[in-house]
What we know:
By secondary structure, the protein is of the alpha+beta class. The protein is built from one helix and six strands. It has one helix at about 10-30, and strands at about 5, 10, 30-35, 60-65, 70-75, 75-80. The strands form two sheets. The protein has a four-stranded antiparallel sheet with strand order 3-4-5-6, with no helix packed on it.
Amino acid sequence: MRMKTTHGQSTMAMEAMLEDRDETYKNFIELEYGYTLTEKKARNGYMVHGTHREDFEIERIVVSSAQAQGEAMGENGIFGYESHG
């Protein structure tokens, strides 16, 4: 196997670095981030959400990057839409 050379020097280190860069970028853009909101103070005349047995649980949102063709997903489907399944 013949190594590529630039001005008499091997390019193996550069090729390994570029391969590592590409793998790291792919792993990074595929990360998913999750968050929820918590009500700290209710508006006048209202009670803080979560203090009643009848209150719905606050939905957790998961977001992935646009570079990985990501979307914002709620527990019930794509953010802004209800799942039908």
